[in-house]
Design a protein that fits this description.
By secondary structure, the protein is α+β, with helices and mostly antiparallel strands. The chain is built from 8 helices and 12 strands. It folds into 2 domains: about 80 residues, Ribosomal Protein S8, Chain: A, domain 1, CATH 3.30.1370.10; about 150 residues, Cyclic Phosphodiesterase, Chain: A (Alpha-Beta Complex).
């Protein structure tokens, strides 16, 4: 987030800056204890350990085994209960690295058979708890070929657009009810700015109102947003829809040098540069753009234009 241009939120008519809060999550300590091996595990534990090398030392025998650090706690047990039980049953000593430190678990004892039994029991215990852990990796065949990605995005976009068109058609009845089955006479008069400082403006817009001063257009807009939010096709950012006709938007500022800003045909938010609109507001604040009858709601495609210069339409419904 740009600290000089933070995102704003409207709460009960007051404008607040939205600060990003970093949340920390802590895992709750799990309680577990060693309940002893099952009959089949007892048989496996009594077998000779052939998968690990048991070295003879001056003090007896020693074996080091690799165990992921995330599983140490299951070998230690609640308050060390599991490790003490294993050491007592096998007459060995089990040295486990500190939690979070990767390393080997070292098992030592006076007799090779005792060390072998302890190694097998640790492996049985680790295998038992490993099966209960959520997997972190999986095998896959990569399908991220650019042609496949392009096809998927096209499919996803077309599917979402079709869904949006269907929901727009569902709004036909309540729109006609509110508009009483006829076009709404509107007037576009006056200029306003979006933010709270006329000397640092990104968007200037013309105010749109019903000629009869009714709230029909506002009600239609609110009902449309409510319908599309409930359908999961829109996220509500403001408590009230601001009816406006954009006059100037710094998002579309052209480079005065004539150079292109990129291949996308539009600039990113970080490249926006606010302007001082005070003189414009003083001179044209009450500008009268005209009157017309509104009879259509369009599903318009962002960053696009049709042959009329307006946004390309994917769907529409009429008031009458």
């Amino acid at each position: 987030m740009d600290v000089l241009r933070p995102s704003l939120i409207n709460i009960n008519g007051r404008i607040y800056r939205r600060n990003v809060i970093k949340e920390e999550h802590y895992e709750e300590e799990e309680e577990f204890s060693y309940v002893g091996p099952s009959e089949s595990e007892e048989l496996a534990a009594d077998e000779t350990c052939d998968t690990h090398v048991i070295d003879q030392t001056d003090k007896g025998y020693r074996c080091a085994i690799d165990v992921p650090s995330v599983l140490y706690k299951y070998i230690i047990g609640k308050k060390g209960e599991t490790r003490r039980r294993l050491e007592s049953d096998t007459k060995t000593s089990i040295n486990i690295p500190k939690q979070g430190v990767e390393g080997q678990i070292v098992i030592t004892g006076s007799h090779k058979a005792a060390v072998s039994s302890a190694v097998t029991r640790v492996e049985v215990l680790v295998d038992s708890f490993r099966r209960k852990q959520p997997f972190t990796h999986f095998l896959s065949f990569p399908l991220n070929d650019p042609k496949i990605q392009e096809g998927f995005l096209k499919f996803k976009d077309e599917m979402e657009v079709r869904k949006a068109c269907e929901h727009l058609q569902e709004c036909q009845s309540f729109i006609r009810d509110i508009a009483e089955g006829k076009p709404l006479p509107l007037e576009v008069t006056g200029i306003e700015y979006m933010n709270d400082d006329p000397a640092m403006v990104d968007v200037l817009y013309a105010k749109v109102n019903a000629k009869d001063r009714s709230d029909k257009l506002q009600v239609i807009a609110e009902r449309l947003v409510e319908h599309f939010v409930s359908a999961g096709l829109m996220v509500r950012e403001w408590d009230r829809v601001k009816l406006h006709g954009t006059v100037i938007n710094t998002l579309f500022r052209r480079d005065s040098t004539g150079e292109e800003s990129g291949g996308s045909g539009r600039q990113t938010v970080s490249e926006r540069e606010a302007f001082d609109a005070r003189n414009i507001l003083k001179k044209f604040g009450a500008c009268r753009f005209g009157e017309f009858e509104l009879n259509t709601v369009l599903l318009s495609q962002r960053y696009s234009t049709d042959c009329t210069g307006y946004y390309t339409s994917a769907g529409s419904i009429n008031f009458s």
